[in-house]
Amino acid sequence: MPDARPWPAAIRALRHRNFRLYFAGQAVSTLGSWLQQVALAWLIYRLTGSAALLGITTFASLLPQLLVGPLAGAWIDRHDKRRLLIGVQGLLGLQAIALAALTASDLIGPTLIVAMAALLGVLNAFDTPLRQSLLSQFVSGKEDLPNALALNAMLFNSSRFVGPPLAGLLLGFTNEAACFALNALSYLGLAAGLLVIRMAPTPRAAGSTGDVFREGLAYVAGKPSIRLMMLSVLVVNLTASSYAVLLPVFAKDIFNGDARTLGWLWGAAGLGSLLGTLFLANRHALPSLVRSIMACALAGGAGLLAFAASQQLALSLLAMAVLGFAITNCNVGTNILLQSLAPERLRGRVVSLYTSTRFGFDAIGGLLAGVLAEHVGAPAAMACAGVLLLGYCAWLLPRQRLLGRDIAASSESPR
């Protein structure tokens, strides 16, 4: 039951005990994940100096979301999601321990880095839709689900703001293996929260995994508004999200910096993302999200071009903040729309198709950006991504109003 005391509208989902427990555990886990992500990027570029390998590693860590994610959603809809998520947290912890041990013993190299990134990607293909689809079970009222999704994203982006600068400081005093070990410990936070949550077993879909998958795919394919939202997620992450692969190149080669410079750049994007989730947490009307998503896609294209052209760190930090705000509003806003419109029995599959599109094309975009940067340089590669995103926005603009009307009608109809 939700807490009877009044809660501010921006954090209203925290009135639910189960969501508070999840929120606390996920806060610890997400901070650890950012420590590992920054340390791994720095390790790769320190050992090899290769922008292409940065792209390949990102590709390997995210591609399983595209290949495994859709079927993972169908599989998890047939099982108890909370028990599965606890098990996945344990496996993620073991992956981080193995990465720390290999790095500390100087056994790590390009092949093992890519292999460990691919293993992490497979585990995340189950972890992400599990966490996202369970949020509706942690809040007893559907009116609080959009706020729960926004607060969940705020956790990620708060850690994104704090984690990269912290990782840069830790790397200055310790090494990459220490960051990986801290990440392994952080998974205990979410597992502990899930163990003390009181909730009934989640409903399970009937039928084979193939049948369950086809049912979810038919739902998404049968709704033009959802198809267009998925296409927008694809384009935004293929273009704008590719900046993450190139940041070590900018930090070291453009700004002549070190791991702390990389941490500041990532932290600026995290600050923008945090502000983006705070913006979403205070929004209630679903049709208005369509307009903000469109505006932020335009801002994302402009942010990419500004960062590509800048050689001043202060201006680049501002461009990163704009880019973080824009990508978060596009991705999280779309997630809120999809989960608010999807029937409960299909939510795991809809979420998995969304996450596989988001992270899968993030992987492809990162790979393309890394390879392109090897040939034309990181600034030109980022500028190309900005031009492509603005071109898509020009195509999408006349369809925006129709999409808003469709979503308004869908949100008012019973599901």
UniProtKB/TrEMBL annotation:
<keyword id="KW-1003">Cell membrane</keyword>
<keyword id="KW-0813">Transport</keyword>
<dbReference type="InterPro" id="IPR010290">
    <property type="entry name" value="TM_effector"/>
</dbReference>
<feature type="transmembrane region" description="Helical">
    <location>
        <begin position="108"/>
        <end position="126"/>
    </location>
</feature>
<feature type="transmembrane region" description="Helical">
    <location>
        <begin position="84"/>
        <end position="102"/>
    </location>
</feature>
<keyword id="KW-1133">Transmembrane helix</keyword>
<dbReference type="InterPro" id="IPR036259">
    <property type="entry name" value="MFS_trans_sf"/>
</dbReference>
<feature type="domain" description="Major facilitator superfamily (MFS) profile">
    <location>
        <begin position="225"/>
        <end position="415"/>
    </location>
</feature>
<keyword id="KW-0472">Membrane</keyword>
<dbReference type="InterPro" id="IPR020846">
    <property type="entry name" value="MFS_dom"/>
</dbReference>
<feature type="transmembrane region" description="Helical">
    <location>
        <begin position="350"/>
        <end position="372"/>
    </location>
</feature>
<feature type="transmembrane region" description="Helical">
    <location>
        <begin position="21"/>
        <end position="45"/>
    </location>
</feature>
<feature type="transmembrane region" description="Helical">
    <location>
        <begin position="378"/>
        <end position="397"/>
    </location>
</feature>
<feature type="transmembrane region" description="Helical">
    <location>
        <begin position="263"/>
        <end position="281"/>
    </location>
</feature>
<feature type="transmembrane region" description="Helical">
    <location>
        <begin position="51"/>
        <end position="72"/>
    </location>
</feature>
<protein>
    <submittedName>
        <fullName>MFS transporter</fullName>
    </submittedName>
</protein>
<feature type="transmembrane region" description="Helical">
    <location>
        <begin position="315"/>
        <end position="338"/>
    </location>
</feature>
<feature type="transmembrane region" description="Helical">
    <location>
        <begin position="228"/>
        <end position="251"/>
    </location>
</feature>
<keyword id="KW-0812">Transmembrane</keyword>
<dbReference type="Pfam" id="PF05977">
    <property type="entry name" value="MFS_3"/>
</dbReference>
<feature type="transmembrane region" description="Helical">
    <location>
        <begin position="288"/>
        <end position="309"/>
    </location>
</feature>
